[in-house]
Amino acid sequence: MCGIMGYVGPREAAPVLLDGLRRLEYRGYDSAGIAVANGAISVRKAEGKIDRLGALLEAAPLAGTAGIGHTRWATHGEPNDVNAHPHSDPSGEFVVVHNGIIENFSRLRDELGAEGHDFASDTDSEILAHLVSRHYDGDLVAAVRLAVARAEGAYALVVMTSHEPGRIVAVRRISPLVVGLGDGETFLASDIPAVLHHTRDFLVVEDGELVVVTADGAVIETIEGEAVERDVLRVEWDAERAEKGGYDHFMLKEIYEQPAVVTETVAGRLDAEGSVWLEDVRFDDAFAAELDRIWVAACGTAYHAGLVGREIFQRILRIPTSVEYAHEMRYGDPIITGSSLTVAISQSGETADTLAAARLAAGRGSRLLALTNVVGSTLSREAADVLYTRAGPEVSVASTKAYLAMLVGQYLLALRIGRARHAVDAELAKRIGHGLHVLPGQVESVLGNEAQVAAAAESLVDADDIYFIGRGLDYAVAMEGSLKLKEISYLHSEAMPAGELKHGTLALVTRGTPVVVVITQGAVYDKTLSAVQEVKARGGRVIAVAYEDDDEILRHADTVLGIPRADDLLGPVCAVVPLQLLAYHVAKLRGHDIDQPRNLAKSVTVE
Ligand code: G6P
Hints:
19 helices, binds 6-O-phosphono-alpha-D-glucopyranose, Glutamine Phosphoribosylpyrophosphate, subunit 1, domain 1, Rossmann fold
């Protein structure tokens, strides 16, 4: 995800910006650039690592004490020098850096094109520079306001003009933005750690706000122009905590990033009617219509995302779908015939077994689609189609936000295929589309119940064995919940379909045995409840993840972790969040190394 920097003060801006961009590197990027005002505005930008930009600046330095900077993670247009930010209008008097996606980009580009605007890059961001310059009439704030009124999407936008020296204007719609208040100097950044070594005093710019930054400080108002009072946030984190965005662990930080990850993964790809546009998914409607089989190949958490995918593809598309452990598939001589699509799911895009299974499937004539988080990864390069999850870099070995993004990616894919083969009518498309649009807010509300999950974790700290049960989509989520717990708490846990419990595992349920049940699916609700009763009859302790308006479950479970009511098709996305938090808190109470659990690796690139 792109990183943003801005500086106004007494110092030379270029080194300050460059240093800030290096501290934003962890967000992932493919190019970087800065613009500095010194009378006129000059830009230096380059594809690749920040060192390339550094070398460029050494060869051709930029003098000036106000500037903006950016690290880009490509969305519209390939990573290259021209598509790197900052972007200028044709006069070079207005520059912008932008994090996010302008969803109505094509329309705006056509409109400006018809007025005679020529564009240098393939990006959506360049349009914003053109829009600001077109609306400029001596007041940058007014011009920015008019420009963003035309832009739909999620973004943080920072603008500078040579007409108003020593002033930067920025707006935030969803994508993060903070102001660092120094002594006679002011910083802008995507997050606090980028400038924490300069100042500990911050103003957090909220969604829907505009900020005017000068060396003397910053003034925040709403985008519509109403005054905003914002308290200064004094940040006391040490360097280690700062790296984790103020959280104790990367895992918790990443869990909390999930609402934004859902927003990013959906942005620009889904409209209110449920119509989907997936930029690198290149198969045509005829292929989607003829498709008679889907294979999903993955390992670990990605495999569990695939279990959800299988349910979605089969229920929504009615296409037979097999989800395979990639290490089994590669040696399993899979019978791949007809017109099939293989969805290889891999956060890293580098897992050796997943690559091998993907190659095998492609070699046997299946069309290969990579669902991955890493732009330019081996899997993405080898696949005919790519669906990037836009979760940003994930540091914690136990995967959370990448998993959630994989689920979202599969809903988008189901919509894309479903519309083409008329398996998804307008009403269903709208339902799923709406569900995805409200999802970030729902995940946010589940995160608001963390204290309740932490309390539930206390009852699991000394358990010997923990069982997870559910049916259908709930079973898929139970699998992931169980894996999370075992990865970082080192407690034995096991997931199974709720109906399977009585065929063996029930023998292990005695007084106090914890059983976590995921129960969101209306069609099998009563069946799952029967399994809960089997557990209760043996004295087992039931922790349920259920819709918060479900009164029935309160009469059966010992603890209920509520999630907002959703369409059953989308229920699992929210249901996994309390399970992630549960694993986190159990592991924390047990004093484990949460981000780097013993014996496990983030990416397994050997067999
Ligand atoms: C390792 C990681 C897991 C991950 C799996 C697959 O086992 O510890 O968290 O799910 O690899 O990784 P991938 O990058 O292919 O999604």
